[in-house]
TrEMBL record, chains A, B:
Gene3D superfamilies with a match to the protein in the record: Medium-chain alcohol dehydrogenases, catalytic domain (3.90.180.10), NAD(P)-binding Rossmann-like Domain (3.40.50.720)
Organism: Sphingorhabdus contaminans
Superkingdom, natural source: Bacteria
Protein name, UniProt field: NADP-dependent oxidoreductase
Leader sequence residues: none
Domain Enoyl reductase (ER): 13-337
MF annotations from Gene Ontology: oxidoreductase activity, acting on the CH-CH group of donors, NAD or NADP as acceptor
Record key words, sorted: Oxidoreductase
InterPro entries: ADH-like_C, ADH_N_2, ER, GroES-like_sf, MDR_fam, NAD(P)-bd_dom_sf
Entries under CDD domains matching the protein: PGDH (cd05288)
Amino acid sequence: MARAWTLASRPAGLPNDSNFAMVETPDAPLADGEFRVTNSWLSVDPYMRGRMNDAKSYADPFQLGEPMTGGAVGTVTDSRNADFPVGAKVLHMGGWRDSVVLGGGTTSPAGMPPVRLPELGVPDQHWLSVIGMPGGTAWFGLLKVAEAKAGEVVFVSAAAGAVGSTVTQIAKAKGMKVIGSAGGADKCAWVKELGADAVIDYKAGKVLPQLMAALNDLGETGIDVYFDNVGGEHFDAALATSREWARFAICGMIDVYNDFKAQPMQYLPMIIGKRVTIKGFLYPDFYAQVPEFNADMAQLITSGAVTGRETVKEGLEKTPEAFLGLFSGENTGKMLVKL
Amino acid sequence: MARAWTLASRPAGLPNDSNFAMVETPDAPLADGEFRVTNSWLSVDPYMRGRMNDAKSYADPFQLGEPMTGGAVGTVTDSRNADFPVGAKVLHMGGWRDSVVLGGGTTSPAGMPPVRLPELGVPDQHWLSVIGMPGGTAWFGLLKVAEAKAGEVVFVSAAAGAVGSTVTQIAKAKGMKVIGSAGGADKCAWVKELGADAVIDYKAGKVLPQLMAALNDLGETGIDVYFDNVGGEHFDAALATSREWARFAICGMIDVYNDFKAQPMQYLPMIIGKRVTIKGFLYPDFYAQVPEFNADMAQLITSGAVTGRETVKEGLEKTPEAFLGLFSGENTGKMLVKL
């Protein structure tokens, strides 16, 4: 039997347990070209919230009653496909379930074909974190979208999250000054451990005065790059402290995913005087450059410049709980489910 | 005697008459290299509001008790400079006064040296409007910042203003579809006359539903380019209706110049899903490309594709009134003072 989490109902605002239902289906025999992957690691990510709505946001919506999809790593346990033999490790989008049939005439979950894990000497679960989608989001956003350069000042929100913690480490490895924002003393301490030059605790006070104080302490007049994971107050504070020609890479606005509520923005006119460039981006826009990212990131990992940290929940049953934890800030680093 | 408007006091919020004072100074004899320009046209522009504050916004602040500066066109009436002989027509920044001494050891007002008007067959006052700074702002913003292309849908706010009316005409001349926003039936009718495919009256209702209705009428699914002159509600509506890879050229946010009040923004997360690029810019960033702009614009004017329209106040006394009129929407096209 294969077990999978399906979308039981669409949430209004913050999702809860009632939006998910587990279904069991018997294992069907494989057709030619198909192979069965038994999952060992599942990813839960903030972008999935958008797919729970009945409207295209970043990606097509999840269908009611159908298994949800998401990044997963597993091992081929049955195969009628020579490219994916038994024992091969596979990165694919058939997450939210314990096993999945891929290849042949099946439709790839989320429209993304499975790939075999390259042999780059990194632990399996890192393919869902630092060297996977969140890590790539960090790498492409910082280096390709914002074009951050050595010596520049980078401000990153949700710096203890999967993407933000990787941004912090890449930026330090590439010679930038980093100010990270995180919620609570523990997370802030960890961001500091990652190498951030200054850390702001957004739960301890307003972002803007803390950001200005951090810049002052570092002897800097403003920020050159903002890597946005949260939107709202952080985004406004970044505008307020922009230097001329600052670049913003906008990757997530978790503050506003659950309710498209109006955010009070005071410093948008800074865009003009400082000639700020603000760019939204999505990881899939950079598929063609993933090998370049993988090669650089494997080196950063094996040299110790970047360390992957994961918050792990054990067991398929915990998948909704892991996902919901993203919105209450439960994770330090990447949130994963281990099967 | 030379008469000049000085900054008498710094405004809090909307400026008024008491912020300006006229002073008279005797005409000094010219030193070597100097020349006297008797002004015939003065420009008043929204960006001057920022310079009335005691803080660098786009440009250095005006100094209390000193003559204000701004674009002006005049004729050399006295000269000890062979490059600017008596009778030469000059575009310079010594506005807000009836005559000014330039060249030699004088400091160029606003740090921008005077230039002789090129012979391109356009009326003098157009050098302060369609073929001057506002026209250049339109041309560079639309074509170089937003990189608008034939067939794309361009939304422009303040489409009856100096910059917006030129954006509308350039966009039509270059094969784009244009939706303009203006305040009141008269201005809307004029924007339609300029060639806009659809016009929104922002005084008659909310921007977003009107913009969606206009797109629907034109059979379009969204906008590709937004040329922002006002910020606030227009900016939010442009985000809400962005197509993928939309580009925003942010040139002015007149809604928020007078008070840096928080604006409620609901659609910022669209930046991510639609991969919107938002860029602030200032005309001076493009000085090196002004000859290219002048050549193209002279052709657009002489071919009849772009017509300059000016709202003219007569007499130096009316300069503050003309300036204040910008914030109550008194002008259709460029606001000028004729001496």
